[in-house]
Automatic annotation (TrEMBL):
Gene Ontology terms: biological process: methylamine metabolic process
Methylamine utilisation protein MauE domain span: 2-140
Transmembrane domains' residue ranges: 7-24, 55-76, 83-104, 124-141, 153-174
Keywords attached to this entry: Membrane, Transmembrane, Transmembrane helix
Cleavable signal peptide: none
Source organism of the structure: Adhaeribacter aerolatus
A cellular-component GO term for this protein: membrane
Location relative to the cell: Membrane
Main location: membrane
Protein name, per record: Methylamine utilisation protein MauE domain-containing protein
Membrane topology: Multi-pass membrane protein
InterPro entries reported for this sequence: Methylamine_util_MauE
Taxonomy of the source species: Bacteria, Pseudomonadati, Bacteroidota, Cytophagia, Cytophagales
Keyword Transmembrane helix attached: yes
Alphabetized Pfam families for the sequence: MauE (PF07291)
Length: 366
């Protein structure tokens, strides 16, 4: 029992630290996931959950930091019983969330490990059940764990962990994530990721006379009733499926991938930071004068044409603008506004509006 207890101790502590670090690395992405849950609960339970949406970012940083703090506290055996009870409360809540998402097919990606590791709803639920069992084991067998060191020393270590965790979250919010796990990270070829990496294969689930059968080719027997088509190699599918750029003149998606493009991404003019556009406008003006390596500025927004026309005159943003899906823009960059530099469809640079680059930096990447 001693061995089982210590294995659970290391696994639970390590997993909570890992999960918290992954999420606090991208607090805006975690906040977006929380907003999804709030919208689902507002529809299924009570509209009161919508009142939490403005606080999603704060909750994102707090909950992510709390996972790290509790994980470190557990490994140090600091106030062990209180920490285990806190972990139990958290995992019971997470288990309910993942079961609800899986059973009712509500939120298809729980965001447990951010964009780093994608889990299906049932995989997320299974993971939480395993953690729940291990925490219960620890509550019963905590006497088998190594004796804690000095209480004061462990307390200072937990306090320092809290400062570092919150610092990471705040810095990642004010800039871009430290590690980018998204499909639009620097070095990725967007048009290549919009295509399958291999030929997709499927199995067809059919029904006949009350019996279900599976086929790798669609049966010619018309007496079979189609039930479902399942991909056999889903990992070969396109990693980007919803990137489109357009305006009233038509589709401009392929033009984005031609030559050097300086994309100014303004997800929503109502939530943008107008004070950032002085530097952005200076960068655009400089880029338009470059002749050796022609750089074409393009503004992408999900706001309406009317709203954006009013906004761009207010901030003096003189560049052609196009429309894109708001969720895609949030995935591309966690800033509003943000800047992305493409070279023939390859992402060669990304900047938060707090880190607007100078023209020399942009040119050096092309």
């Amino acid at each position: 029992m001693k061995l089982i207890s210590r294995i659970c101790w290391l696994l639970v502590g390590g997993l909570f630290i890992f999960s918290g670090l992954i999420k606090i690395n991208d607090p805006v992405g975690t906040a977006i996931k929380l907003e999804e849950y709030f919208e689902v609960f507002a529809t299924d339970f009570s509209p009161i959950f919508l009142a939490l949406e403005p606080y999603a970012l704060y909750l994102s940083i707090f909950l992510s930091a709390l996972e790290i703090i509790l994980g470190v506290a557990l490994l140090l055996r600091w106030r062990l019983r209180q920490v285990l009870v806190s972990l139990l409360v958290i995992i019971v809540f997470f288990t309910f969330l993942t079961f609800y998402s899986a059973y009712f097919n509500k939120v298809t990606d729980c965001g447990c490990f951010g964009d780093a590791i994608k889990l299906t709803p049932w995989q997320s639920f299974t993971k939480d059940v395993v953690l729940l069992v291990m925490i219960l084991i620890l509550l019963v067998t905590q006497r088998y764990l190594p004796k804690p060191g000095r209480e004061a020393t462990a307390g200072w270590a937990v306090a320092i962990t809290a400062i570092i965790a919150f610092g990471i979250g705040i810095y990642a919010y004010l800039h871009e994530p430290f590690i980018d796990f998204r499909a639009y990270k620097v070095g990725n070829n967007i048009p290549a990721l919009m295509k399958p990496s291999a030929q997709l294969k499927y199995k067809y689930i059919m029904e006949k006379n009350g019996e279900t059968q599976e086929f790798t080719t669609y049966p010619t027997d018309t007496t079979f009733k189609f039930k479902q088509m399942v991909a056999l190699n889903p990992e070969a599918g396109p990693k980007i499926t919803d990137f489109n750029v357009w305006n009233d003149s038509g589709d401009f998606t392929q033009q984005v991938f031609q030559g050097n493009k300086l994309l100014i991404i303004v997800q929503d003019v109502r939530k943008s930071h107008p004070e950032s556009f002085n530097e952005i406008s200076n960068l655009i003006n400089g880029a338009e004068k470059v002749t050796a390596k022609k750089i074409e500025p393009m503004v992408l927004t999900s706001s309406s044409g009317h709203d954006f026309d009013v906004f761009r005159h207010e901030v003096n943003l003189a560049a052609p603008y196009y429309f894109a899906d708001g969720t895609v823009l949030k995935t591309m960059i966690r800033a509003n506004p943000g800047i992305m530099l493409l070279k023939n469809g390859v992402v060669v640079g990304k900047w938060h509006h707090n880190d607007v680059p100078d023209l020399q930096t942009v040119q050096a990447l092309l």
